[in-house]
Input
Amino acid sequence: MPWFIWLAAAAALGVAEFFTLTLVLGLLAGAAVVAAVVAGVGVGVLGQFVAFGVAATAGLLVVRPVALRQMAQPSLVREGSDALIGRRAEVMQEVTATRGLIKLSGEEWSARAFDESLVIPVGALVDVVEIEGATAIVYPRELLP
Output
């Protein structure tokens, strides 16, 4: 079987994987590339199918489970405003349940207290508990257990 037929099969399987995202057809495409290389070196049809079968089996039994486990894990990197949660800030303008201003990561942010009964004075250090839109929800550090 000519090597370019294996490459055409690999391309078709790769396109199908793009639309299904199952990690099965992509691994079969990789196995077809292995078979194309084997065909390119002059191995017969039986050797090509054996190479395809071995590569496909190895991919489905070894690579796919590892890839699925990796994809199931949550991202370790927080982005955007989520990255600010847990950071320390300084109160620039008294923070109450409805208004306030803090300096967070070098920028001024509107803020309000997590505990609605608290009034946090200017200069106090706070932790960012949550971000709602452009407002940081904060809790004073000295009240933390």
